[in-house]
Amino acid sequence: xxxxxxxxxxxxxxxxxxxxxxxxxxxxxxxxxxxxxxxxxxxxxxxxxxxxxxxxxxxxxxxxxxxxxxxxxxxxxxxxxxxxxxxxxxxxxxxxxxxxxxxxxxxxxxxxxxxxxxxxxxxxxxxxxxxxxxxxxxxxxxxxxxxxxxxxxxxxxxxxxxxxxxxxxxxxxxxxxxxxxxxxxxxx
Length: 188
Ligand code: SME
Fold this sequence. Notes:
GAF domain-like protein
């Protein structure tokens, strides 16, 4: 049964422990639920509350959420569209290849940006953001279905008002979360 306490984080947890709780709670919430809107919405909430329970710079996260592959992208011109998130109102669509999110989507690689002003093409949805991490969510076809290339279906985006707000711990755990989310949802 879903309970709001899933997003309650003890005040003295380490970043690793907070991420571990995010993954555990997400796995529980995804049980018998594969709707991507529902699952991304609860995951955005878990991430937000996890960051807010941590010391600086993590508690200076000002945006945590998702962009998904826009099913209305024009042929040959894939774009991301805003998905569930916690934080202020944000840009609605982002072409693959533009900004930090579009670069992660186009290259299917995690982007850790310590200073967003130094990132060519960074899209400043919120002028308060100083650093950012974007992790692609890639659906890998099962060997049974013939294998093949992975498909970027969404990205995780987290912004921070502190410079250098993210490190290898964030990368490691958000990449684990991206794999869990990829396999736990039915994507449009
Ligand atoms: N800064 C991002 C845009 C998304 S917002 O930060 C929520 C980018 O450059 O892709």
